[in-house]
Amino acid sequence: MHEGILSTPFDFAGQTGKYTGKVREVYSFGDRIAMIATDRISAFDVVLPHPIPFKGQVLNQIAARFLKATEDIVPNWVESVPDPNVTMGKKCEPFKVEMVIRGYLAGHAWREYKDGKRAVCGNSLPDGLQENDKLPRPIITPTTKADQGHDEDISRDQIIQQGIVSQQDLDRLEQYTFALFERGTEIATTRGLILVDTKYEFGKKDGTIYLIDEIHTPDSSRYFYADTYDELQQQGAPQRQLSKEFVRKWLIEHDFQGLEGQQIPEIPSEFIRSVSDRYIELFEKITGDKFVKERQENVLKRIEDNINKALKA
């Protein structure tokens, strides 16, 4: 039996709903929510069968730190962090787009560019770029938030034309996205890192736009090591990066990319431990702090007790 939180079977007094995502479980209490970061891990839009010990704690604590560090730019949903795996705050109505922003030509944007496309979500890109090159300027490449199936690229004009977000609100979301990315870049620089790309999610409550969900975590962002970036780029070599890309690489090497008919490979306990260690390494590199492992015995009772205390406070 692998340690870690795979699910949370809670039924709180005053609970008005529960939503289970790929990684988080969200409990509603009227106009408040408790968001629990489990130790589930997803890749290729598939949740893997084994939890990664301490992964939820890593993500929740990184997100809490960066939300605090950006609250002067945009208000966020957080009211308290009563447990290492839990954040509580305002229940907002989410905008149906994710604001993806890219400073470098990597990942999905590179694959589109390599296939000959010179426009990504309405952004024109020059000829002659190589994988992981710095873009002339950061670009926003939004995606839809699909209730079912995969998210899809969408342009600013399409968002407005389809009535997904009003032009006034979209202007504000773009303003916030650029400012948050600039702040994230500044913080990453102090840690010897490059913030390559990331995504932000926003919601609205009582007419106010709030930053919601997590930000600048290794699950939602890609980082390169700054000290080797130029040398590796000149060599045309892969960049050293901080993200969960190493999990995707292992799955690809074991013939799994989430395609129809493919089976999730058996994941050995040694690999699970190595993923846990890697997430802890990510935490320490991104934050500059030593990671303190919370006890894993009776972890569900600890979470339940801390949420109950927060609800009464």
Any overview of this molecule?
With 313 residues, this protein is α+β, with helices and mostly antiparallel strands. Helices cover 33% and strands 25% of the residues. A hairpin with a 2-residue loop joins strand 2 (24-29) and strand 3. Helix 1 (55-69) packs parallel to helix 7. The mean pLDDT is 93.
- Share in helix: 25-40%
Characterize the overall form.
globular
Distance between the first and last residues' Cα: 36 Å
Q: Unreliable stretches, pLDDT < 50, 5 or more residues?
A: none
How many individual β-strands?
17
Which percent range describes the beta-strand content? 25-35%
| Helix-strand category | alpha+beta
Number of helices: 8
- Overall mean confidence score, pLDDT: 93
CA-atom Rg in angstroms: 20 Å
Q: Give, in order, the helices and strands.
A: EEEEEHEEEEHEEEEHHEEEHEHHH
Biggest beta-sheet profile: 8 strands, antiparallel
Task: Give the arrangement of secondary structure elements.
Elements lengths: L16 E4 L3 E6 L2 E6 L4 E2 L2 E2 L7 H15 L8 E6 L2 E5 L2 E2 L2 E8 L2 H8 L4 E2 L2 E2 L9 E7 L2 E2 L11 H6 L5 H24 L2 E13 L2 E5 L8 E5 L3 H7 L5 E2 L2 H9 L15 H19 L11 H14 L1
Antiparallel strand pairs: 1-2, 2-3, 3-7, 4-5, 6-7, 8-14, 9-12, 9-13, 9-14, 10-11, 14-15, 14-16, 16-17
Helix pairs in contact: 1-7
